[in-house]
Design brief:
Helices cover 66% and strands 7% of the residues. The chain has 5 helices and 2 strands. With 117 residues, it is mainly α. It is elongated, with a radius of gyration of 20 Å. The longest helix is centred in the middle third of the chain and has 25 residues. A two-stranded antiparallel sheet has the order 1-2.
Length: 117
């Protein structure tokens, strides 16, 4: 499965979370992504995470303890991983290349349909 399809499945599963879970997940991952953009190295990213702690910011924003936020994120990420893995196992790629034959008598492009349940 390619990264683009994994990203699509992740986005799809995040949309299915409860409002509270979705808001928390998007808040934390948004902050982490912003910090990753600022960092030039993995070490700098870890340092930024320590200084700006997305989990602490989420705890303040959502009026929860750090431990609650951490536990909730672990549960959310585990649930997302399980659901994405299950969908990947059910996914099928259907090759429709032969259905789109060009003037040269062969397919000009490869055409695939990605199907999940």
């Amino acid at each position: 499965m390619n990264d683009g399809m994994i990203a699509y499945l992740l986005k799809s599963e995040v949309a299915r979370l409860t409002d509270e879970q979705r808001q928390l997940y998007r808040f934390i991952t948004g902050l982490e992504d912003a910090l990753a953009e600022q960092a030039d190295t993995a070490e700098e990213f870890r340092s930024l995470l320590t200084i700006h702690s997305p989990f602490e910011q989420a705890a303040y924003r959502f009026n929860r303890s750090f431990a609650e936020v951490s536990k909730m994120m672990q549960k959310i990420e585990s649930e997302l991983g399980d659901k994405i893995e299950a969908r990947c196992e059910r996914a099928k790629w259907l090759d429709y290349t032969d259905c789109f034959v060009g003037e040269s008598g062969r397919a000009d492009k490869q055409v695939f349909l990605f199907v999940t349940e």
